[in-house]
Amino acid sequence: MSTAVKPRQLNLDELRRLKWLLGGAMALVSLWTVFFLDVEALSLVGVAGAAMLAALVWPQLPGRVPPLIWKLAVPAIILAMAVDFYSSPDTLPVLIRLAIVLVLYRTVSYRRKREDLQLIVLAMFLVVVAGVLTVSIGFAFLLLLFTACGLGFLFVINLIDASETGGPRTPEAETAWTRLSWGRFFARLRAVADWRLLAFAAVLFAAVVAMSGLLFMIIPRFELATGFFLDRYITRKTRTGFTDAVKFGDVSELIRDESVAMRVDLTDTTGLRDAPYWRLVVLDEYTPDGFRISAGLKGELIRSQVMTQRARDRTAGRINNPVGGVWTFYIEPGVSRFLPLPGSYGALRLREFMPLQTSAGSRLAALRIESMTMTAFQLDDVELTPFVKDSAFVTRLRQAVENPPAKPDPGRADPRLTLLGPTGTANEAVLKKVVAEISGGAALSAEEFTARAITWLQARHAYTLAAKMPKGPGDDIVRWLDSNEPGFCEYFAASLTVLARAAGHPARVVAGFHGGVLNGFENYYMVRNSDAHAWAEVYDGKTGWVRADPTPGAVATAAQTAAQAARQEQDSSWSARVDSMRVLWYRRIVNFDSRAQVQMLDSVKTFTTDSGAALRARFDEFSKRLKLWLLRPWDAARFGRTAGLALGAAGLAWGLGRLGQWGWLRWRFWRRPQSFDPVRLAAGRQLARLRELHRGQTTEDGEQVIAGVREDLRRLRYGRRETWPEPHGVFKRARQARRAVRQR
Amino acid sequence: MLNVAAAAAADWHGPGAQERRRAFQWRTLLWALVFPPKRHRISLTVPGLFLMVLAVGIGTAAYNTASNILFITLSLLLACLLLSGLLSWFNFMGICWRLRPQGPWRAGHETLVTVEVENRKAWLPTYSLWFELATQPRHVPPPEKPEREMKMREILAAAEKYITRGRIFLRERLDPRGAASVDWGVKPTLRGEASVELGAVGSLFPFGFLRKNIGATLKHPVLVWPAQVEYQWTGAVAAHAGASGQRTARAGTGDDLLALRKYEQGDSHRLIHWKASARLGQLMIRQFAAESHDGYSLRLDTPAAVWTRPEQFELLCSFVGTLAEDLYATGRLRGLSVNGGPLIETRRIRDLEAVLDELARLQPVAEQGAGSREQGAIKNVITFAPEGARGVIAYVDGRQTASA
Fold it and tell me: Is B86 strand, coil or helix?
């Protein structure tokens, strides 16, 4: 009696089902990448994802859609996209939406080979665009997932292509694969899965990843001065509020956001003691809604714009106390077009040639537009000074006051703005009263006034995140100043600025970040959006602007600084570990350029040279020791000990080998108890070896020698167990026969 | 001593057919990648070409934007291409094949060519192979003089006229240490010596980017028997009119013991010759002579002066072959004599096959042979002569008995 054995291969219908599964998974992965983009397509992505998932789980669904709808789908897509192109201001979001719809169309409809290839290309478009526009580490994961699905998909397409007979099939037969149940399908997959092939596929995939990594590193790089970049075709709003104008409340909203705004990679963190102030924007003009960058300062920035990859800080002068080595900044998209600067610096380097705007007096650096992707730049010779040198300011201010221009210069900041505050009799009266209270009627220097004003503010107002502006007439900040309400950094900074201005000292508000956490794994600062901060800068009357932070608790004492440093060192949480992966991604992949390539080649060369030398030295050392050991006098006891050790080691190795073999056999028996029989397997191996002999130089004599034993081996391999000869004897005879044939 | 096993092994061709594997050398491998072995071809398919174009496009964009995301995408694409080549190499590793034309081959009739494949790899299967086969006559009829000058395409088409090509696919996975066979149905057009050739073994494995072909110069000679034709038999009277005629002596169901042969499965136990079996130590079967019939001998003379038209000559061969088979089937064929040569007697099926082989190779001769001495004594001799421009007539002892 024979039992029907199912073939250990997937049939055509099962292969088609597998193709459907892989194609759907690949399309869903590509759709997932769109979540990283801010292209106003989330509802479309949701609908498309749900439809794809439904079609993936119930493959018979597309068959129930009337053919007319399929026919009308393409013209409808074209029409919808034409309308979208017409109505949307940006090109790229429309293209992405079009790709989503096309991926959806291709995923939920039954496909032939050509449509399968189209699906791959469309899905790849989505993945690549999302990667280019976001540069997030999530993209790396999704790209790998997409590659795995895509390769599997192509593999199955090719198998189907080879398996199809090409003959006409009835519509019933054509859609038979949709009626397979998932349970049966997965059971078949499990039945045909061979762990060796799966392991081989996993190794190959790892090899592809390794190979692509190697190719990535060795592809020659050269910089081009001009670039075509996708992010020009998409606009994005700043999330942080660090734009040209900061309204009261902008920063406080940001403080609730715990996501990382930027990461700062330092080559040397030893010199850092205080929490750095990361200056982003200087707001020199007062308005009743808040402070903003004046039109003149904006014009100054625009006038200074150059296409460059490198800039120097002209105010830096002589660097006295550089810290941190090389500072590499990775700023998340949506933070600001202004670059965060922790202090004076020697040089600023961008990844590529870009339009860069700078203002020496305000120590500002800004890109022309806000990047859609992560922005990276480097600073050298950074000095964490609270001072911004601007000795020309006093001259400009005097000239402007003495000879006010008839028409403001649009390309130059008006220095008089740094003295203007809230106007109106009531406001001025309040300010005058407060200034008098602070100064006690004496003419104080800027430094002394600032110190007293900070003390006054901190004595009058507490710090809170849930600040409320007192209601009433007059200017907001003056009203708050005159009240006892608690406030947050913006209120304090704005108050100090208007007080200083009322006292006749030029002052301005600066917004940016303060502090950050040092990652314990990769030695870099994680600055979160919750570290957003505002402070003031007051002109010292002679040489420059001095930072003044009136927010209670912002300026740490020495003890607090030491405690903070200790806390930073200990930040080795899982979230920090995960975040360190992102920096590795930025360091090794995103920020990899020709300079990094040369550095890497140098380090590889140094490593190989050093390790070669170290290996040689170790080998020499070992040879010397061995020689000395051998030259030592040998007696019976030593010889016995050595022999015993050698025998013990050999025995241990043999035992481990046997244990491994036993484990292997147990594992195979556990996996397929019905089909596993070690005797049959051993007989199969012996037969294969005899066949090898048969293919080789076997003489007729040899044939006779092996003919007898072959019969017994066949019986062991295929015969019933009751008819078996004694297996060990047969295997022994087979070995002897092979030896005898070889000797002839 | 003659090596029997080695002779059998020599049948196999392909990368896995080497007797002894050469020691692996990186230098050899790298050189083979740069300069592939003879007749090994790797070409891009349309998806592969698209992938290359995509890679070039992404590479251009990567250099233009200095975007490392595009560089990494480019690296992945190139790595996939490399992986594709590597897997394709694995796929062909340890594969060997041999050609088994199934007989008989007859002009105008479909026959099978079997390609046997073995995967001698230890644990990797092989997928999606195809075999490019062709068959062509050894001697192609001279082309007719064209009325006008032929274009290159027409010349090539004329050269391909007698070549039958085909591609057969191994649709299932070939497991490690497994074997499979695929059949190619072919219909030879011309009688005569021909060859069936395995031109190349190819695959699109694994992703369909690369079409890898391994040229295989595996040729197998075959003999195509003449086609079967319809003819009119009018010679029953003539046969009976023959006085005594010649009697056939071949195995059949008559009463006369013709010979003894070894027992074969399915033979009736009543036919066992027990005495002979006991004497020889193995079962022997009695073989009786067929019922006697008047036998015909075919005499075929093919002087080129008589058979001037090639079509008519082909018809002659087909007619003789068909007649010989029909006569054998009814037990009335004694043998065939060609151009005065000795009579090839047809007692067994093998003799009839020899007759058909002879007919397959037959060509018009310049002069007719002298004829054997016994021919004069033979009765019921069927001879053949052209009828008009197209037909052939068969005569029995000078009387018309059949025509085609």
Answer: helix
Residues 6+ apart with CB under 8 A from A141: none
B266 shares its domain with B346: no
In which domain, by residue range, is B282 found? 255-289
The alpha carbon of residue A580 is apart from the nearest alpha carbon of chain B, in Å, by 19
Q: Which of A155, A197, A351 comes nearest B66 by C-beta?
A: A351
Residues B4 and B38 in one domain: yes
Q: 295-324 in B: which are within 8 Å (CB) of A?
A: none
**Domain end residue (candidates: B289, B315, B338):** B289
Q: Are residues B204 and B334 in the same domain?
A: no
Same domain, B263 and B246: no
End-to-end CA distance of chain B: 54
State how far the Cα of A736 lies from the Cα of A683, in Å rounded to an integer.
15
A92 in Cβ contact with A67 (< 8 Å): no
Which of A159, A211, A219 minimises the CB distance to B127?
A: A159
Report d(CA A140, CA A146) in Å as an integer.
10
Do B66 and A227 lie within an 8 Å CB cutoff? yes
Say yes or no for a CB contact (<8 Å) between A158 and B204. Answer: yes
- Band (pLDDT 50/70/90 cuts) for residue B245 is very low
Side-chain half-sphere CA neighbours of B176 within 13 A:
9
Query: Is A197's Cβ below 8 Å from some Cβ in B?
Result: yes
**Tokens representing residue A280 in the block:** 């982003």
CB contact under 8 A, A208 and B5: no
Q: In whole angstroms, give the CA distance from residue B206 to residue A161.
A: 11
Write the ipTM: 0.72
Asked if B220 and B249 touch (Cβ cutoff 8 Å), the reply is: no
Residue type, A357: Q
Interface contact B79-A211, CB threshold 8 A: yes
User: How many angstroms separate the CA atoms of A106 and A86, rounded?
Assistant: 25
Q: How far apart are CA B308 and CA B146, in angstroms?
A: 20
Please give the distance of CA A708 from its chain centroid, rounded to a whole number.
67
How many structural domains comprise chain B? 3
Q: How far apart are CA B274 and CA B286, in angstroms?
A: 10
Chain B residue numbers touching A688 (CB-CB < 8 A): 177
For residues B13 and B95, the answer to whether their CB atoms sit within 8 Å is no
Q: Compute the distance between CA of residue B342 and CA of residue B355 in angstroms, rounded to an integer.
A: 12
Neighbours of A274 (CB within 10 A): 16
Q: Touching check for B288 and chain A: CB below 8 Å?
A: no
Most confident of A16-20, A469-473, A532-536, B399-403: A16-20
* Residue to test with chain B: of A8, A144, A147, A159, most B Cβ within 10 A: A159
Q: Give the contacts of A159 (CB within 8 A, at least 6 positions apart).
A: A15, B127, B128
pLDDT at A542 over 50: yes
Query: Which A-chain residues 224-263 have CB contacts (< 8 A) with chain B?
Result: 224, 226-230
Q: Mutation target for A interface from B58, B76, B211: give the one with most A CBs within 10 A.
A: B76
- Strands B294-300 and B333-338, by their bridges, are parallel
Q: Tally the residues of chain B.
A: 404
Same domain, B260 and B310: no
Do residues B84 and B4 share a domain?
yes
Judged by a CB distance cut-off of 8 A, whether residue A192 touches chain B is no
Interface test with B, best of A118, A124, A128 (most B CBs within 10 A): A128
B51 and B163 share a domain?
yes
Which of A128, A161, A696 comes nearest B73 by C-beta? A128
Candidate from A124-128, A190-194, A727-731 with smallest mean pLDDT: A190-194
Question: Which of the residues A6, A18, A132 would you substitute to probe the B interface, choosing the one with the greatest number of B C-beta atoms within 10 Å?
Answer: A132
Distance of residue B231 Cα from the nearest chain A Cα, in angstroms: 37
Question: Tens of pLDDT along B331-366?
Answer: 888 888 888 888 888 888 888 899 899 899 988 888
